[in-house]
Amino acid sequence: MNEMPVKATQALTANDYASDQEVRWCPGCGDYAILKAVKSVLADIGRSPDDVVFVAGIGCAARFPYYLSTYGFHTIHGRAAAVATGVKLANPDLDVWVVGGDGDFLSIGGNHTLHALRRNVDVNLLLFNNAIYGLTKGQYSPTSPVGTRSPSTPGGSVEAPVNAVRFALGAGAKFVARAADTLQTHLPEVLKRAHANRGASFVEILQNCIVYNDGAFGLINDRSESQNATVRLEHGKPMIYGKEQDRALVFNDGTGAFEKAMLADLPGKDAIAVHDETNLVRAQALAQLDQPEFPVPLGVIYAEAAPEFVASRGISGTKGDWNRAALKALLNP
Amino acid sequence: MSDTVLDNEAPGAAQTRPLVVRFAGDSGDGIQLAGAEFAKSTAEARTDFMTFPDYPAEIRAPQGTLFGVSAYQIQFGANEVLTPGDDADVLVAFNPAALKTNLQHLRNGGVLVVDESNFDARGLKKAKIDGNPLEDGSLDAYQVVSVDVVKRTLEALDHLELGRKQATRAKNFWVLGLVYWMFGRPLDSTIDWLNAKFKKAPEVAKANITAVKAGHAYGETIELAAAPEFRKPRTAEHHKAKSRIISGTQAMAYGLAAIAALGERDVVFCSYPITPASVLLHVLARFEGGIRTFQAEDEIAAVSAALGASYAGSLGVTASSGPGLSLKTEAIGLGVSAELPLIVIDVQRAGPSTGMPTKPEQTDLTMAIHGRHGEAPVPVFAPATPDECFWVILDAARAAIETMSPVIVLSDAYLANAASDWDIPDIDAIPDLDWPQYEADGTGFEPFRRDGKTLARPWVAPGTPGLAHRIGGLEKSDGAGHISYDPANHGEMTRLRAEKIARLAERRPGVQLEDGPEDADLLVVGWGSTYGAIAQAVKDMNAEGARIAHVHLRQLNPLPRVLGDLLDRFPQIVTAEMNTGQLSTILRSEFLKDIACISNVSGQPFHVSRLREEFKARLEAKAK
Questions:
Q1: How far is CA A243 from the centre of its chain?
Q2: Lower Cβ count inside 10 Å, N or C end of chain A?
Q3: Cis ω for the linkage preceding B233 (within 30 of 0)
Q4: Is residue B198 domain-shared with residue B320, that is, in the same domain?
Q5: In whole angstroms, what is the distance from residue B34 CA to residue B194 CA?
Q6: Residue B478: inside a domain, yes or no?
Q7: Across-strand partners of B472?
Q8: In what order do the strands lie in the sheet containing B48-54?
């Protein structure tokens, strides 16, 4: 199918991307904030809803497509990335987004996340990480911290959680970012960067589950306190953070790890680490930083230009001139 | 050895009865290659044939072991050849293990060609044989042609200055040359093929060409006088000038290429390697147009990506074997619920679990029909011959698009690998494949508003202007397609999904007898690859005065029209299946009739002789 012309004559608004369905998430769920940000980003991108596809797995997050006016496919648990890969195989011109939770992306569908990333399929993968299983009523998830008390772990969970950003980098992802649901100026910027990237764009969105895991991310997605709990990454800019912008990260070449410091204690500005989103080693070190010891890095952690899957590899013939004459030639060598 | 006259006058045999040749040796001996070359020369003689590659799952099993034996059987004749044959007229055994495991396939009095070079103490021990069968008289029932093939091959290649190991590798072509001589076959096409195949390694081509010529000359030199019957031409008059060899796998690949050529859209083929289905991916990946191939990370991703491709407007296809079909079932259920077309090919193999990966079985029938959670009916088709593997794919594509449903195609390891001569279809005679276009009628678009005749919902792919909508695996309201938990709606949607598949039968041909009288004493019902063996047994027995009818089902769900009426006409009905009675169980429950099953779960196709005995016993039991 050919690319449809973008409606250029009349600017699209966030409301043009809203469906007529009543949203059924719990009041106060972080998913509302993400939905709002996505709609505004889609309007800014400006592609017609007819050329945009949201593919989702199963879970609270995976209801997302029903609430948008774009094409949408609510599939099965864990398989959204695989379905989306098929959508791109059939029609590379579509703007494809994959939405899932920590169960979808990192538990039952971990394998598909891994392969979509390392193939660099041109889709935007939005992981709504709330560190709990919501729709099945509150069991611990693969991103729940050790000690999480839940219906299936009344004595506290004992499993080490998976770090989504480290997982993505390990899978060979070429675009890895992190954002938080309620940070409504930051999240849209990250989503726009993800959309602009050709290839698989992985965005972990820290999302608060108000019913089963309220406050799981501490102050990160608290609008007023977030500045102390996070460091906002910008390519080429020094890693300064804090409400008063009085703290910074320093990279220790000896240990290969970031350290935090008060600006006042540093010998000079040159000591502050400068974010280089093309540096894989630094990205891996950033992925290690977690609260409460460190500010949690938000923004584009890693971005490397690389050939996308659909345009470059893994495909044999396309329809083109494939017709009766070609078939006859094939059958009569 | 001189003046050895090989006799091939089996008692009561017609003058130009079909002949069966079987090659057996180590899986690294080039058995399949020698067999395939022999089949090609058979095709060039415009003779009917059917082959059966019978190989182990191990790629290069330890040399000389019993489990490492690979075999290739071919039957050829002037009249329609329907099976690879029961017992061989000629067995070529490359080592003691091949002799031990394959002698059961040689008819009494048949010709046994043996490479005696491996019949030393070591080779016999590996094959767990006490004594030496070449010396102890245990092969007296056969006409033995014992040759030190390795020695002869090395002598012939001596002047080429190859290493011993490399020269020995040409022994399969030496034997092929000898067999060619026995059957009066020319060497040209094999020589041409070797030159083309080893264009970049002319020394390899030369070694093999020298070997095939030497084997041929050896037969002539020792005046190995083959039975005159071996050299009789067996030209099948019904053949068009233009036919070619085709395996079931190749035929399926061409069928998929045909979908793309006859319709407006791409075929997207997604699969994960599994024996014996992987070869389809290999064949398709080489095609230069029409089909996008995708090797997924697992079986679930393969079917999910295929479904995603169908959602986006291509025809998604996935292929696997039983273990893979098990993994795909959840996504097939989504295809049923979201009502999207999809073709799922199951190349059945002996199970359960890993079972016997290279051996055929028909044990996935009930899984194909019933093996999903919820009520999730899908059409199920099964080709009967390698040739039909082409046509079944076109049928499946039309059915999938017409019903907006996944369709399962059941092939098996025998059909996939068996090759026969193939009359190339007349492409111009095949109608276009229609891709439905949604046409607005002014009442607004509803993704689950159904066609009055087919009950199919409209297929509107992303990118279509003005029709953006959402679908999924949650129950939908009839028509509008919104999420619905309404009790009455769920009942109605369940009924509609079943009715949609049932109605397919009305638009497809009913069944008719393949063979036999309308008032036969026994009706044999088959499906899938058992066609050849059943047809041959029925034809032979009816020629001898029996009254047996044969019906063969290509459409297992929905069952074809008028099948019930047809079953009513016969006093005794039996299925012949490579399972323990899956079709007979289905027919019993569907038609409330007493239907027995002749079962074969050996990992080998039915032998015609076995079926004849079974049919005879049933006819006699009834007569008493």
A1: 26
A2: C
A3: no
A4: no
A5: 12
A6: no
A7: A74
A8: B143-147, B106-115, B88-93, B19-26, B69-77, B48-54, B419-423, B243-247
The class level of CATH for A14-237+275-331 reads: alpha beta
Query: Looking at the DSSP assignment, which residues form a beta bridge with residue A194?
Result: none
Q: How far does the CA of residue B208 sit from the closest CA of chain A (Å)? A: 25
Looking at chain B, which residue has its C-alpha nearest residue A309? B294
User: Would the CB atoms of B260 and A322 count as touching at under 8 Å?
Assistant: yes
Chain A residues touching residue B306 (CB < 8 angstroms): 86
Instruction: Report yes or no on B494 lying in a domain.
Output: no
- Which of B429, B462, B480 is the C-terminal boundary of a domain? B429
**Could you tell me if B213 and B298 lie in one domain?**
no
Tokens read off for B210:
């020298």
Contact A96, B317 (CB under 8 A): no
Whether residues B283 and B331 fall in one domain:
yes
Cβ within 8 Å of residue A254, ≥6 positions away: none
A307-331 pLDDT, tens digit per residue, is: 888 643 344 555 667 889 999 999 9
pLDDT value at position B12?
A: 41
Helix (H, G, I), strand (E, B) or coil at B141: coil
Return all residues near B495 (Cβ < 8 A) that are at least 6 apart: none
The structure tokens listed for A4 are 């449809």
> How is the beta sheet containing B548-553 ordered, strand by strand?
B548-553, B522-527, B573-577, B595-599
Distance CA(B149)–CA(B174), nearest Å, equals 7
What predicted TM-score, i.e. pTM, was given to this entire model?
0.94
How many Cβ atoms from other residues are within 10 Å of residue B3's Cβ?
8
The distance of A320 to chain B (nearest Cα, Å) reads 7
| B327, containing H or E segment | helix B322-338
How many A×B Cβ pairs under 8 Å? 213
Concatenating the DSSP letter of every residue in B13-63 gives --TT--EEEEEEEETTTTHHHHHHHHHHHHHHTT-EEEEEEE--S-SSPPT
Do B145 and B184 fall into the same domain? yes
Q: State how far the alpha carbon of A44 is from the alpha carbons of A67, A225, B231, in Å.
A: 18, 28, 79
In a domain, B446, yes or no: no
Average pLDDT rounded to a whole number, residues A149-172: 97
**pLDDT at site B232:** 80
Taking only residues 217 to 256 of chain A, the set having a beta carbon closer than 8 angstroms to any beta carbon of chain B reads none
- Whether B330 and B336 have beta carbons less than 8 Å apart is answered as no
Q: Model confidence over B459-511: pLDDT tens digits?
A: 999 999 999 999 999 999 999 999 999 999 999 999 999 999 999 999 999 99
What is the rounded CA–CA span in Å between residue B174 and residue A327? 38
CATH number, residue B329? 3.40.50.970
Domain boundary among B429, B462, B494: B429
* Residue-number span of the structural domain to which B94 is assigned: 19-231
Q: What is the pLDDT of residues A237-286, one digit of tens each?
A: 999 999 999 999 999 999 999 999 999 999 999 999 999 999 999 999 99
CA atoms within 13 A on the CB side of A164: 36
Nearest CB partner across the interface for A51, out of B295, B338, B463: B463
CA distance B473 to A56: 11
Chain centroid, CA B351 distance in Å: 17
Interface test with A, best of B311, B329, B464, B474 (most A CBs within 10 A): B311
Residue A154 has a CB neighbour count (10 Å cut-off) of 7
